[in-house]
Amino acid sequence: MHIVGILPARWASTRFPGKPLHLIAGKPLVQHVWEQCRRCQRLDDLYIATDDERIFAAAESFGAKVVMTSPVHPTGTDRIAEAVRAIPRATHIVNIQGDEPLIDPGLVDELAATMAADPTLDMATAANPLDPADPAVQDPNVVKVVTALDGRALYFSRSPLPYFRNAVPGLPVFRHKGIYAYRRTFLERFVTWAPSPLEQAESLEQLRALENGASIKVLPTNDTSPGVDTPEQAAHVEAILTSPTSSHP
């Protein structure tokens, strides 16, 4: 068993071109993510997967292992699958968003351990509990997930999910967090499948896995670390990192 963390880092971003190299507290954004993941205990190796020579050179300069991938992949999962072809030892892969500089290493380890412990799983991911009255429940940019009693995903949606016709005390809404762990054999199958109907309707690639019968474990987490999609969000993260009370290195 060989568990590999991969950070996809793409240059082109509609809202924030060159985002992975945007400096936050003196370091490129992707370096912050990489340094957090270096603290993980359950990863046997860690790579950055990019489509750009500038990111490749920067990653090598701060000591990361890097894999160059095609710039034309339709999804991040396709980029991960290409990168894995250059890592033949990998049996399990954790796809860690390259724009979450405050990601909790403990969550990455929990995903890796979950996949390693259960051979019936194809994938694992994470979700934050929300109060059903939270405005985020109505926000289509916030993806929700519902699970079976054993914690496996039943459905992901941009719509409010579930619909509370009746109040159920203690039942939260779960906000999906975009981190995934895969079994290598499943990842290689996944990228051969055509985009599925529900995936196309919701623009959520994880629905392709469910529509093809995959088993996805959803881990509840209190890690609400913010991602960086805009320069304003980068400034917010920098304020957190440079705060005198910050626990981040």
TrEMBL record:
Recorded hits in Pfam families, A to Z, give: CTP_transf_3
Q: Which UniProt keywords apply?
A: Cytoplasm, Lipopolysaccharide biosynthesis, Nucleotidyltransferase, Transferase
Q: Which GO terms describe its biological process?
A: CMP-keto-3-deoxy-D-manno-octulosonic acid biosynthetic process; lipopolysaccharide biosynthetic process
Q: What is its EC number?
A: 2.7.7.38
Gene3D superfamilies documented for this protein: Spore Coat Polysaccharide Biosynthesis Protein SpsA, Chain A
Give the highest taxon in the source lineage: Bacteria
GO molecular function list: 3-deoxy-manno-octulosonate cytidylyltransferase activity
Please list the coiled coil stretches.
none
Say what the protein does: Activates KDO (a required 8-carbon sugar) for incorporation into bacterial lipopolysaccharide in Gram-negative bacteria.
Q: Which NCBIfam families match?
A: kdsB, PRK05450.1-3, PRK05450.1-5, PRK13368.1
Entry similarity comment: Belongs to the KdsB family.
What name is this protein filed under? 3-deoxy-manno-octulosonate cytidylyltransferase
What is the protein's species of origin? Luteolibacter luteus
